[in-house]
Amino acid sequence: MSVLSTTPLWTALEARAATCGQLAGGDEWVVSGLSIDTRTLRSGEMFVALKDARDGHDFIQAAREAGATAALASDATAAANGPALMVEDTLTGLSALAAAARDRNFGKLIAVTGSAGKTSTKEMLRAALAPSGKVHAAQKSFNNHIGVPLTLAALPANARFGVFEIGMNHAGEITPLVGLVRPHVAIITTIAAAHLEFFDSVDGIAAAKAEILTGLRPGGVAVLPADSDYYDFLCDEAGRNGVTTIIPFGESARAQWGVRLLDYDPDGAGPAKLTVSVEGEKKIFTLDSPGRHQASNACAVIAAALASGATVDSVIAGLERFAAGSGRGATHVMTIRGATVHIIDESYNANPASMAAALKVLGTTRQGTEGRRIAVLGEMRELGKDSDVFHRQLTTPIAEAGVDMVYTAGPGMVPLRDALGSGVHRAHAEQALDLIEPLLADLQDGDIVLFKGSNASRVGPLLDAFLSNATMGE
Hints:
Layout lengths: L1 E3 L5 E2 H8 L2 E3 L5 E2 L1 E3 L9 E4 L11 H6 L4 E4 L10 E3 L3 H15 L3 E6 L4 H12 L5 E3 L9 H7 L7 E5 L8 H8 L3 E4 L13 H8 L11 E5 L5 H10 L4 E6 L8 E9 L2 E9 L2 E7 L4 H16 L4 H8 L10 E7 L2 E8 L5 H13 L8 E6 L8 H6 L2 H6 L4 E5 L4 H7 L4 E5 L6 H7 L5 E5 L6 H10 L2 E2 L2
């Protein structure tokens, strides 16, 4: 993966000063971006030779052949055939570059975490802030101990805004990452059951997500979910960390002095219409990203953008240009075997909360008189000892959404398969791709098909296979 700037990012001397490293092979190079993957590296970037699952030093020569200008390395022998910045540890060196990039930038930095909606919120922020100035954010979900410093190290000095997604699956992971970013604004999108394999309860998840408040700068702003059962807890954690400015968002009355969603009017054929109250002022706009949960994310974005110095009208103008990305609510109308179907792509990941939200989108999406609502669901991972219970409980949102047919994939989905019975359940497979033929055979004109599952469930490749059999409809 890589993060590329359109202007010179680091000179050799600047990078040496930031890392306290040593230059080898010349000191006049300039790089426009950073990469840790030779497969996506672009000419002009610095290749960072990390020692992770594989040793990046084994790929320095390939990186040079792909156009890398220089390498950040700790093995002098591996880096001997070209310009390099030598450090004792490359991940530490990358973090030093990140800290220096942060300190030379005078824009507003925003950090986002939550049990769901992190990447969508990051992308909404990119769109919402764009009318107000240069926005820096990773192109993908770079939210771990490598992705966060990689994204921060690529922050241009002249960016007016920087947006950073911070994830976790264990307690203590967010604290060092937010301490590196030191944001002016922190968003917690939601607290829900996710990664319970590594936590005793959702209480533990709430405490881990609240770690993002530890790194806020003095005078920083916390944007918190008013609809969450953990709102009061998060406010208490904000106060304990010296955060005095809190902006609530959501539908509950607690959001009335922040950004409150007053009305959500979905339109299966186009963008939804949102009515929001922004500090008491009513605003109406459209959002081309289906689901009430995405409307809530938009409210968080408005709050964070205003706290970062943007105007409400510019923010709304940016949001109206936003469209959901692949795997995160993107929609398609396709024609296959003579049937025109509406596809909802939520294939990126899944936990009980995001699964319920996606099913609600399926239930509110309008269909033709003959069409059916079809859910293709992959298992949810990392749910711990209560995994069977969480899967079985999906029967409730499935029924509430009026789903006609359910396809399930993966061993974790067996409890749901058994709970649904033959009336609604259509087919099950241990491997998601094995559902492609029965799914294609069952399609009828007007069907709405939702694809949702954890990455490891491989629903994404199933969707790719499905789309490869289809053509764009009118």
